[in-house]
Amino acid sequence: MASRSVGAFGSILASVILLLIGVLAFSIRLFSVIKYESVIHEFDPYFNFRVTQYLSKHGIYDFWNWFDDRTWYPLGRVIGGTVYPGLTLTAGFMWWLVNSLNIPLSVETVCVFTAPVFSANASWATFLLTREVKGTGAGLAAAALIAMVPSYMSRSVAGSYDNEAVAIFALIFTFYLYIKTLNTGSLFYAILNALAYFYMVCSWGGYTFIINLIPMHVLLCIATGRYSANLYIAYAPLVILGTLLAALVPVVGFNAVMTSEHFASFLVLVIIHVVALAYHVKRLLTPRMYKVAVTLVIMVGMVGAITLGAILVTLVAASPTKGWSGRSLSLLDPTYASKYIPIIASVSEHQPPTWPSYFMDINVLAFLVPAGIIACFLPLSDSSSFVVLYLVTAAYFSGVMVRLMLVLAPAACILSGIALSEVFTTFTRSLKYHAPLPPPQGSQDMIKDKEFLQTQLSTLNSTINDKAKETPGDKGGKEELKERSSKRSRKKEKEREVSQKATDVDKKKRLLGLPFEASALGIVLLVILGSFYVVHCVWAAAEAYSAPSIVLTSHTGDGGLHVFDDFREAYAWLRHNTEEDDKVASWWDYGYQTTAMANRTVIVDNNTWNNTHIATVGTAMSSPEKQAWEIFQSLDVKYVFVVFGGLVGYPSDDINKFLWMVRIGGGVFPHIKEPDYLRDGTYRIDAQATPTMLNCLMYKLSYYRFADSSMDGKGYDRVRRTEIGKKNFKLTHFEEVFTTHHWMVRIYKLKSPRNLIRGKTKRKGKLAAKAPKSVSSKKQPRKNPF
Amino acid sequence: MASTAGEVRALLSSLRSAYAATPTKLKIIDLYVAYAICTALIQVIYMAIVGSFPFNAFLSGFLSSVGTAVLAVCLRMQVNPKNKEFKELPLERAFADFVLANLVLHLVIMNFLG
Description:
The structure holds two protein chains of two kinds.
Chain A: H1 2-27, H2 31-35, H3 44-58, H4 60-64, E1 67-68, E2 77-78, H5 79-82, H6 86-100, H7 107-134, H8 136-148, H9 150-154, H10 163-184, H11 187-203, H12 207-223, H13 229-248, H14 255-258, H15 260-284, H16 287-318, H17 326-332, H18 336-340, H19 342-346, H20 355-361, H21 365-376, H22 382-400, H23 405-433, H24 441-467, H25 472-512, H26 516-544, E3 552-555, E4 561-564, H27 566-577, E5 583-585, H28 591-598, E6 601-602, H29 611-622, H30 625-634, E7 637-643, H31 658-668, E8 678-679, E9 682-683, H32 691-695, H33 697-703, H34 706-709, E10 716-717, E11 722-723, E12 734-739, E13 745-750, H35 758-764, H36 766-782
Parallel strand pairs in A: 5-6, 5-7
Antiparallel strand pairs in A: 1-2, 3-4, 7-13, 8-9, 10-11, 12-13
Helix pairs in contact in A: 1-7, 1-8, 3-6, 3-28, 6-7, 7-8, 7-10, 7-23, 8-23, 10-11, 10-13, 11-13, 12-15, 12-22, 13-15, 21-23, 22-23, 23-26, 24-25, 27-28, 29-30, 29-31
Chain B: H1 2-20, H2 24-50, H3 55-79, H4 91-113
């Protein structure tokens, strides 16, 4: 009775704790909303937001068939076929649900708060997963850890409306259902697993991690002799149904069966069928017959396998990347991207992480994970081997790309939760056995017996020694004494044995327990460790990961807050002061924000699917003014803007990104040569810079009138920390139309085509002279509608 | 060679006798699996002859037969009285799971068929 009520109390406590963990996960991500405002962060979320707006306005059929002509001018982009729809469909569904209940939340509010809601779901999914591996205590610890872990928080704060917000939840949930199927062998959970995998495929390109990790785990189980019917039921329906569902998503399409990322799953499917058949036949036949069958199959099968393997190898070797996509290949071979695909190499998230970033991102868990790995091995089950494999592969991939620390975070939390739970169990058990309860029955007698025996033995010894020299006659008496005492001791021994068996188990448990002070101190130290973790996580949430990066702040001398809202200022200017279908050119980083906030057509954006187009823009930025003007004129561009941080010290401006423009442009157009821009191997903009650098468009657009407008006329660039090289120059083909408050965004307009036939006009007479003048006079009133 | 031929014959006869001892329920399921695999093979041969133009049609047909074969194998494993791990699973539940799984599979197939 007592245990049942304790069990009920325990489950209620667990539910309350889970609810609180969900609230914690939601609220710790709200720092950016409190410190700044409810705004969408970064670059990619703006695209997702624009897509969600379109979905909410036009409905789902128009969304699937949407062809976006406002980006990648003149190519356009097929949104329905190139976007992972999971996030937008989820947010769109939540918006529709909330609005049909007459709660008037705008699309932007729903988008901003999607990520915190799904991080609460992710902690609950982690609880379920860890409970399947090690039990409720470990589950609660793991859920509490992942609610706060900085690595996951960095991609899921309120306002970070990106794929990973829902994808991590889908990842953990899929793994939970896989482990549940493995543990129970129920086909129902296998179907749920396939549907959760479908949701993951819809959400993120990282689904290939799942479809390669699960086959690896199945292979591991088979190789270590742990094949069972549960393994087959967990794996085979997932592959068939999962491949079909993955092919349903338009982004993946037939890649689900044709690219090398999925081949591992098919290979392991064949292997598991062979193993299943072998086990089945082994059960049917006698051992001798089985050996015959094995030799026969090997002889016949070898021939078939070799031919099949040859066909497969030739098919795969025919494609230059061996069937893998560029991004996956850069994961397997970390140097691939820097050699062949500079765009992938240029993204800062794709660089390998530094050692401090591990301690920043998973903090205390870095110490607890090895303990968790050991705890998983005692005892080893299918589910715990899966979690260890997940951690090992995630640790490797996180070492390749800092962005993938996100995939390591759930694994680290699960294993740390297991470790914490095991350690707490040991400590509290030791405490329980040292508690001041009445000692068990035989112990006191046991102690008394021991003393009695000892005195007996000592007296015996002394009597034997004393009377050793005595006559044999006395020996009988001594022997009798010895016998009697030995009989008594033997009886006492038997009693002792019986009571000892009862207390033996207890004694063993006591021996397993640590001394009282050690376990109490251990618990206190662990709680302190946990508090360090919590303090670090809250600090990371408040200071490091809540910046929306579209609004910047700094502290003034007297402690006030100075806000740099230049980006939104520039986009608002573009929105209100240009024509509806004017084309705007900039570096690809700002494409999504421009289409979402300024609502103008852009040339390149963050999708980076067309390297040549980006190289065109990069070449234009690296060329002298006339050539750049010609390139932009051929693309129908009207406005060009650059981001310049020299006046305020903003380090992520276009001059710092200039080396990538040169490299990407030079990769496609050979007349852009990187050494032309380098002096002693570095990019410089001071007086020592090369003439090519001082004449290129990026330099001119960034530093036009910079020297005149600074107070000492010297033009000191705060980011590069030098004076600029060329100070007072005029622009011939561009004119400045807007510069924001802190000079962070500078917008220029292309000058209309110059009258190039100056000399010949005089000969041709007044007719030709009249025509251009009328054209230019017509253009005058249209320039500035406000 | 003769010894191996004799051994092969002995092997086949022992296989046949061992298989004859399996319950009828399982033999029906095995028949269903064999039928589904044959259908899949026929579809592959047809594609090899005619070409794979509506590739999604081929993929959905092929994966539907292979999928239902795999699900039937799972059902057979759950229903087999010799499997100790499924002793407490009632047969009706196993069959209901099988039907539900097939329903989901064919819903997806019909969506993908185009």
